[in-house]
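User: Transcription termination/antitermination protein NusG. Structure?
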Amino acid sequence: MAKDWYVLHALSGHEKKVKRLLEQTIKQQNLEKYFGKIVVPTENVTRVKDGKRRKIEKVIYPGYILIEMTPNDETMKIVMTTPGITPLLGTKRRLHPLKKEEVERIIARIEEKKPEEVKEVYLEKGESVKVIDGPFTDFTGVVEEIYPDREKLRVTITIFGRATPVELGFTQVQPIQ
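Assistant: Predicted structure:
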C-alpha cells in the first residue's frame, strides 16, 4: 500500500518532542517500512530582544506535524497513542490524507525559507525605546519607521529641545517597559 501524507495535531510548543517520540516508537516497533518522513515545518528567524540578535528555529504552523505513512491498524495505533497527539483531519478510526499539492506547497515553503533568514523585531511603530549603544546612548525616543531588511530603525529623539530623526540598528535600542 502506498504512503500518503497526513496532518496531526500536537500540543503547541511540543511539536519537536512529539516528532522524536513518534520516531522512537516507530523504530522500537520495527515499523519503519510503513512510515516515511515526519515533518515539523520550521524556518530560521533572527530575533532582536534586549538589544541582542538571536537566531532561532521557529515553527511555521504551531501545533501541526506532517507525517507520511501507510495507514493500517499498527500505524494508527502508534499515531493515536503517542503522547501529545490528537488527530486533526479525520476521526479515530481513519485519518484523511492531504492532497499532494498541499504537501508540496508546504515543503516548498520550508525549503525556500531555509537559506535566508526571516527577521523578526519586537518593536512597533510608535513604541518608546531607549538608546543603549552609540553616540545617543541613554536618550529616549519613539520608533517612526522599521527597516527589517537592513536591521535598522528610524527613531525620533529630542536633542537640545528639538525632535531629531536618527537611524539606529536593532541592537542599539531596547523597548521601555
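The mean pLDDT is 85. DSSP finds three helices and twelve strands in the chain.
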